[in-house]
DUF1735 domain-containing protein
Amino acid sequence: MKKFYSLFLIALMGLFVVSCTTDDDRDYTDYDTYPVMKDISGTLSASNGYTINQSINIQSSDVVLVYRNTGTTAAPIWQLLPKTYFLDGGRELDYNFLFNRTAIEIYSEANFDQATMTTAERDEYLSNQQFRVVLVPASQASADIDFSNYGAVERALKLNQKIVN
């Protein structure tokens, strides 16, 4: 019986030693990313080329979604970009974005000179704009999610727990 316990103890110690060793020569890269959101605010103006820039860090296969708050700070209504607004006089104002692995550029462009907008239009469409950027790993970018519905995206990806400021 003593021999059995001795062998058992040796086997257990061997398991412990093997499980605690690491191969320091190996590089470990974590390709498992999690969805996160980031709020960005700013004013689109001629001085910044009607552009807001933000650094990000994503894998090349990840999906970037951008929403514009069309409500208030207290009661946001998130609308997916790109989006076109049809203003009086046949004028069109577009919001869009570009991104790569390290940066996102949110911008407005129009079929007219944006500097000619009325004060009310500038206040509504250009000044103090709030955007929400959602970084979605490709593995979680399911076709079953209605990306135009921010609430559906938030629930599907559990975003309310993953905001980054």
In short: The first helix runs from residue 2 to 20.
